[in-house]
Structure formats: structure tokens, C-alpha cells
Amino acid sequence: MKLITRIEQWPIAGSFSISRGSKTEAVVVMVELSRDGMTGRGECVPYARYGETPEDTLKAIGQWTSEPLSRELLNARMAPGAARNALDCALWDLEAKTAGRRVWDFTGDYAPQPLTTAYTISLGTPQGMAKATAAAAHRPLLKVKLGGEGDAERIAAVRHVAPHARLIVDANEAWTETDLERNLEACADAGVTLVEQPLPAGRDEALGKIRRAIPVCADESVHATASLERLQGRYDAINIKLDKTGGLTEALAMRAEAKRLGFEIMVGCMVATSLSMAPATLVAQGAAVVDLDGPLLLAKDREHGLRYEESVVYPPDPMLWG
Predict the structure, then answer these.
(1) Same domain, yes or no, for 147 and 43?
(2) CB–CB of 184/212 below 8 Å?
(3) Is 2 a catalytic residue?
């Protein structure tokens, strides 16, 4: 099997801002696995929050150049994370192409259906966020990035210009035990239906001690299946991202276990091209919240990218993946 990797930069339309900072491009790692004239592809986004860099990710993937490679061996020997995600998804794509079938023929799921995705409003001043929201207020689901001080004013400003949209909020670990209940109340007043990762991972005990008027979703606090049980009592939902789970294989297993434990399912993404989103559209079937708007935030998407009609995203074309 031939393995090719590379780092790619995809400019963002404007900038993308969360509580940890801003960026103007999406940096992804691309994997191509070729065998018997067929090529499978996968894409991942190394995330500094988890100690990942593009260069380290290339190195981790490169160890498989001279190793036998299968999904079973990969998931047994490699830790969850971006590097494993790209390889795992490339293996799924290669398997489908080799068999001349679609990926979902092997997962046991029905053929995927179109999904309504959230559209992200970046963190900024209340005035700046209101302006960005006004341009997207026609969308049915908006994900609002918050960042700590001034969040009550931010969410009120967003709601004022988008009175009919469903709102979810992502604080990206920016709140504290001191302002947790106050910010949750402000979100409740604005009609927010879900708050994602309000407290820092590992310091979220307070969530189990308060009455959660709004469902709270774990993101940075949850990675793969093994991290689920300790979240019970603190979170109502979990955000499954393939860059955290380490690929489609683990994401599907995690979805099943999360449902068994009673968690609502959210399926999210990093800012990346449609190649990153394509496997996630399978996991997102039946999810309570779908957040796969990464390509909509780019200045330009990959060739044969996913079809988006406003906020509706369609299953991948085989020329893209799967």
C-alpha cells in the first residue's frame, strides 16, 4: 500500500474567532492510501488545544509507511486524535472504492439523508456579532461562539437580530464557576437550546452541582468512547468530532455507547474542507444537533465538495469520499 501525506492551507472567508484566538486559514493534513489502482483519501485538522501540530501529525502518520495497515490494527495501536482520523477515513474510502460500493454498505446504517447544519457566528463584540448574525438570520440553526466577560450582551444582541433562528452556544471552556449560572440564565433568556463546553475540561465538576435549565454538551471534555461514563450527571449531550475520536470507526462505536448511556448526540467539526465533513455526515444521521459547516466558512472548498443548499448538507459524492 502506498501512503502519501501533505499539509494544506485553505483560506477562511474573513476570519474565525473563538475564546482561544482567531485564524484566517484552515490548516489540514491530507492522506492518500493507494493499492491496486485505487486511492482512498482522508483529512484531519491537528489541534493545538490537544497538543497536536501539522508536523507531528505527519510524523505520526508516516510510521505506517513500512507497516501493514488495517482499520483494526490502526485502532488497536494508535491513540485517538487527528492522525488516526485521517488514516481511518482513508481506509474506509479505499475499502469502498475497492469494492465498488458506498461506505454505508459496510457500516450497517441506512443510506445517509440530507441534514440541516448549524452555521457558526464567530466571537466578537456584541455589535460585530449582531452584524454577522443579521446576514445569517434566515438560517434555521445558528451556533454562537462566546468567550467570557460580556457574553450576556453578546447573546442578547444575536437574538435581537435573529428572532426566529434556533440558537446554540459554544463557550469553548471560557466560563468559570463564578459566572456559570449567570451566563446560563442569560442564554435561557435568549431562548438558547444548548450550551456547549462552558467550563474547562477537567474542571467541570460544578455542572453536576447545579440545576441545568439548558442542556449542556461536552466537547473538549469528551474524546473517545472511554471518556463517556465520567461525564454522566454533568452533561446532557456530547459532541462527536472525528478529529477527537480518531476516525469514523471509533465515532460510530462512540455514538452507540453514548445513546446507551442516555446522552443526546451532537456531531461537530473543525474548520476544514468537505473531505473532513464527508465521514461525519454518516455519524450525524439522527443526531439532535448537526454542526458540519466547516466548508461554508472557507473562501473556497475542495473539488467535488459536499453540496450545501443554504443550511442543508447532502451526502458525499463518491468522487469526494466513500
Answers:
(1) no
(2) yes
(3) no
Q: Catalytic one among 97, 145, 209, 244?
A: 145
47-265-257-214 Cα dihedral, nearest 10 degrees: 100
Joined grid coordinates for residue 304: 467535488
**For the chain, how many structural domains are there in total?**
2
Cell matching residue 5: 501525506
CA gap 141, 116 in Å, rounded: 8
Encode pLDDT of 65-119 as tens digits: 877 899 999 999 999 999 999 999 999 999 999 999 999 999 988 899 999 999 9
Quick check: 22 and 16 in contact, CB under 8 A?
A: yes
Judge whether 259 counts as a catalytic residue: no
* Distance, CA of 113 to CA of 80 (rounded, Å): 27
Q: What is the CATH number of the domain that holds 244?
A: 3.20.20.120
Residues 6 or more apart in contact with residue 88 via CB below 8 angstroms: 42, 71, 74, 75, 246, 247, 248, 249, 250
Shared domain check, 161 and 249: yes
Q: Which of 300, 302, 281, 301 is nearest to 292 (CA)?
A: 281
